[in-house]
Amino acid sequence: MNKEAFNETLNELEVTQREFWNIPRETGNFLNMLIKIRQAKSVIEIGTSNGYSGLWFLEALEKTDGTLTTIEYYEKRQSVAIENFNKCGFEGRYNALQGDACELLSNLPDDVKFDFVFIDANKREYIEYFEILKPHLLPHAIIAADNVSSHRQKVQPFLDKIFADSDFQSEILDLPAGLSLSYKLV
In what order do the strands lie in the sheet with 94-98? Predict the structure, then answer.
């Protein structure tokens, strides 16, 4: 990892935060710490955009010796993210998938498992992402979902489902746009 390029790229991407719907720095920093605390090895991100959140994940995964799978619908955004990842020296630490998230997730092999999930894509599909990914979660996995306050109506079915699921302990954190955090108990 190139620490100087990492910091410069984060600063550059923060200028275009609204245009690319990036998470705020405090959310990125929090998720980075959470990956390190959890010692996550296999992270999946739904909604790559220009790679801002992915950079936070990759920096943490450098410490845990883990990998990032990231999904983006738009090819142009995915190519920008890949460029940003490589500029910071993260080649070989990520797998970038481009296309419809529900379709790509539905085609995951049964033996593919994740210990950390970040959801920040089509808000109405959060519930589908959860339902598809649930069998792919390792014990004690963490699911973080962004925009649960700013887009509450759109994500409410997801929140209702995960908060009612006895396999998970969940809470909404007062980070910008709202972040739900769910811990798989088994």
Answer: 94-98, 67-72, 42-46, 114-119, 137-146, 179-184, 168-173
**120: domain range?**
3-184
Q: What is the tens place of the pLDDT at every residue in 43-77? A: 999 999 999 999 999 999 999 999 999 999 999 99
Strand partners of residue 182: 143, 170
Neighbours of 162 (CB within 10 A): 21
pTM of the model: 0.96
Number of domains in the chain: 1
What CATH number is given to the structural domain containing 38?
3.40.50.150
Q: What is the DSSP string of 139-164?
A: EEEEEEEE-TTTTHHHHHHHHHHHHH
